[in-house]
Amino acid sequence: SPLHPFLQSLPKCEHHMHLEGSLSPSLLFTLASRNKITLPASADSAFTSPETLLDRYTRFTSLDDFLRYYYISMGCLIYEADFEQLAWDYFVRAKSDGVMHAEVFFDPQAHTERGIDYETVVNGFEKACKRAEQELEVTTKLIMCFVRHLPVEHTNETYIQAEPHLVSGRLAGIGLDSSEEGHPPRKWHEVYGKAKKQGIRRTAHAGEEGPAEYIREALTHLDIERIDHGIRLADDKELMREVAERKMLVTMCPLSNLKLRCVKEIGELPIRTFLDSGVSFSINSDDPAYFSGYILDNYCAVQEAFGLTVQEWENIAKASVNGSWCDGSRKDAIL
Ligand code: ES4
Ligand code: ZN
């Protein structure tokens, strides 16, 4: 697009990317060999080489199909240095895409469940965050997500483990991700209620594969402050008006939605509807190593499908800054 240099230089924030989702096939094979982990190539030939794996990533059939690769692959992350490298590589790339501030997700349960210490994960990610702030001048926040496919009791244990970090602000907030269908948000009511009482920021994936009703539930039962994906919001006009009125941010991930077949083409996403209805949204990469696109690729894909004006793009980037969980002085410095 002729707007590419403009879109790149726009000061922007990213709010919806999973650090584990930036694990590329090439880093995966490097870590597997360094950590002496055997990938399940005999059960699934996609794990034969980085090339065969990348090729498989062009044919995801659903969120769950993708999640299978996502959880197997993160099994190669063992040491603090592995987590640090993963996050650092992402921050370098984000910087070159014009990201000034990144709020990134991670899934502690996916690591503790396989015997990795919670502290190993957080310490590694935190080191990369500190380095990003010092060497790249990219500010960062870590958001811990609960995975919906594990029992709620597992979430409660994880919350207790993370509680001191959440209260001290070392972690910026909580989110909810993984398999959506059959896992209604209300199941996490208790832990979200506790977080709210403690003044902890809350977001959740809702309306990605699941219905608009799950967005409504996440608002009423979890009292979330942000909506991740939220593409089904356009199916419920009353709810959409409420979200617009409350100036809540919807964190959209266009290439993810396309690759996981939530939509047949980017043009199906409710971007125009959101712009016309005053719904604030940001554009994000979700799992850049799996959906062949970092944040700028997502901006460009939206531009190709919708042909937005320079003014509209400036407004979208501004909304991404204002919807961030950083303090006002940082927002002013970015804008
Ligand atoms: C995810 Cl695309 C997506 N949806 C839900 N949960 C996730 N975790 C990582 N990527
Ligand atoms: Zn996501």
UniProtKB/TrEMBL annotation:
Transmembrane segments: none annotated. Its cofactor is Zn(2+). Zn(2+) binds at residues 16, 18, 205, 286. Substrate binds at residue 287. It is found in: Cytoplasm; Nucleus. Keywords: Cytoplasm, Hydrolase, Metal-binding, Nucleotide metabolism, Nucleus, Zinc. Belongs to the metallo-dependent hydrolases superfamily. Adenosine and AMP deaminases family. Adenine deaminase type 2 subfamily. HAMAP family: Adenine_deaminase. Catalyzes the hydrolytic deamination of adenine to hypoxanthine. Plays an important role in the purine salvage pathway and in nitrogen catabolism. This is Adenine deaminase. It comes from Stereocaulon virgatum.
